[in-house]
Amino acid sequence: MTEHSPFPHRVVCVTQSLADFGLKAGDNGKLVRLDGSRIKTHAAFRDWLYRLRPGERLPRGRYFRNKTPGRPWLMMDELHMMLKPIKP
Fold it and tell me: Please, how many CA atoms are within 13 Å of residue 34, restricted to the half-sphere of its CB?
C-alpha cells in the first residue's frame, strides 16, 4: 500500500498458542489436553447418530448407550431482527 492511500489502515499482530485452547503437543506429536488426557472426538459415531431419525433403533455398542437418535434441537433467538430500532 502507498502512504497516500484514501483508505485508513492499521496493522494488527495476533499470536495464538495451543495453551490458549487448553491443548499441547504430546510426545508422539498428537494434540492432547493440558492435563495429559487424549481428545476423544467420536466423529463417525456422532455422524451415524445424527443420520438416524427420531424413534429409529440405535446400533449396538458402548457409544450409543443412553443416546437418542436424530440431530439435537437447535434454538436460535432472532427476535432482535424483527424489532425496529428505537430512535430517540
Answer: 7
- What 57-62 contacts at long range (C-beta under 8 Å, 24+ apart), as own/partner pairs, is none
Of 53, 56, 85, the C-alpha closest to 71 is: 53
pLDDT in tens, 3-14: 666 777 788 888
- Please report whether residue 44 resides in a domain: yes
Residue 81 located in a structural domain: no
Residue length, the chain? 88
CA angle 37, 43, 47 (to 5 degrees): 155
**pTM value?**
0.44
Structural domain including 48 reads: 18-71
Give the chain's domain count.
Answer: 1
